[in-house]
Amino acid sequence: MYQLLFWVGVIIFFYILPPVLLITFVFKEKLADYGLSFKGAFKDYKLYVLMLLVMIPLVLYFSRTASFQARYPFYNLKNGEGFYPNFIIWELFYFIQFFALEFFRGFMVHGTKQRFGFYSIFVMMIPYCMIHFGKPMPETIAAIVAGIVLGILSLKSKSIWMGVAIHCTVAITMDICALWQKGMI
User: Fold this and answer.
1) CB neighbour class for 148 (10 Å; exposed up to 12, middle 13-18, buried from 19)
2) Contact of 146 with 55, CB cutoff 8 Å
3) Which of 25, 30, 95, 185 is buried deepest, with most CB atoms within 10 A?
4) Is 26:141 a contact under the CB 8 Å cutoff?
5) Comparing C-alpha atoms, which of 92, 96, 165, 102 is closest to residue 128?
6) Residues 136, 162: contact at Cβ < 8 Å?
7) 72-128: pLDDT as tens digits
8) Could you give the CA distance from residue 67 to residue 5 in angstroms, rounded to a whole number?
9) Residue-wise DSSP of 100-147
């Protein structure tokens, strides 16, 4: 648990602190302009629901694979251990990590859109794809497609919040499916 929480702490530190400092003190702009605004966040909610309708069956399918089961969940329940408190605490911190990731996406997309326009999405895709290296190949490929779609929707809505919701929903689904496939649920 402590290693996982350290990992989340590192992600929060590097994905949030440098961009916040740059936006606030160097660019002298509002954080809301980098996706933190709730205004317009739910405008295209049907597309996010459609993404979930595509992703959840894929997660169910791939959760049967050895590579998936070896990777998920990040917090492994010990024999006889219940979900509370450790697994629930882990999932809450895991969700915070997804906020940090989506904030970094917002920083990349909204921070480069003046220079690159629509192509800022593909600038963001380079580091986004790289963080999926070492994960199961289907997840890495899906991350490219999902990253492009989430980038487009963030660019259009000027918000990261539905991307956070999608990431958290898919992550909890992946963890539950992995536990289910391992016979722990």
Assistant:
1) middle
2) yes
3) 95
4) no
5) 102
6) no
7) 999 988 888 899 999 999 999 999 999 999 999 999 999 999 999 999 999 999 999
8) 23
9) HHHHHHHHHHHHHHHHHGGGHHHHHHHHHHHTTTTS-HHHHHHHHHHH
pLDDT of 31: 97
Question: Could you tell me if 47 and 155 are in contact, meaning their C-beta atoms sit under 8 angstroms apart?
Answer: no
Residue 79's pLDDT is: 83
Amino acid in the structure at residue 153: L
Single-letter code of the amino acid located at 1? M
Interatomic CA distance for residues 38 and 103, integer angstroms = 13
- Residue 89 confidence (pLDDT): 95
Query: Closest by alpha carbon to 109, among 130, 94, 127?
Result: 127
Q: What is the mean pLDDT of the chain?
A: 93
Which of these, 33, 35, 14, lies nearest to 103 by C-alpha position? 35
Domains of the chain, residue spans: 2-181
Residue that has been written with the tokens 């169910």 in this structure: 60
